[in-house]
Amino acid sequence: MKRHLKLLLLYFAQYAKVRLAYKADFFIAFFSSMAATVLGFGFVLVLFSKIPQLQGWSFYEILFLYAFSLVPLGFFNVVSWNLYEFGDIYIIQGRFDRILLRPVDTLFQVIFEKFRIESLQEVVTGLLIITVCVRRLHLAWTRADYFWFALMVACGAVIYLSVFLILTAVSFWFEDRVGIVPPVFNMLTFGRYPLTIYNVFIQFMLSWIIPFGFASFYPTTHFLRRQSFATYFYLVPVVAAVFFALAVLVWHKGVENYSSTGS
Fold this sequence. Notes:
The structure is a single chain. This protein is 73% helix and 0% strand. By secondary structure, the protein is mainly alpha-helical. The protein has one domain (2-257). The chain is globular and about 55 Å long.
């Protein structure tokens, strides 16, 4: 663990130097990411300019949920770059051979070879909006709430990572430059709103098939004092652990199935 932590810091420091060497490119990516975040919040503002509530959820409750979803997603986006490009770069182009030659776990290398540093703005923006919502909703947080918040953010990031890691590992069996990650990524939007506004099928899918609900919606119900979802809230760490174990298993099975391009 100590060795891998040291390697992680070295990976990040080295990549940050390279990324910041092209400052114009970095700032363009940063402001593009910020613009997308602002537009997302803008949609919530426009929505509530037309309606007072969304099936019993107030403006600041929806805003809290939306902001919370950005925090674990932001941490995930920082390390997700290679997952989107894995099929093309590592499998079809044969760069995974280089990964196999190094005396470090293949999964560790793929995840931490590149970083999307500009995505940290999602974390900061989400935390700032959450602070505003807590005050507007007059929520009195205890020390336990701060502990649960940190744990839920970590679990949410793990769930996002696990889902997309499983989808990425499919590339070991089905070589495709695009893969099935992009369409599932678009489903992240569903988790930014209360699951109760969707039909039963979508609620089931976002809870037990692609558990984005456990990464965003269910964690927020505790802080918004929605006691009817308490059982789901306490299941979040369990879901995160199960899906991460499954993702690691699928990944290693994929590595065993990998055959070089021969080039």
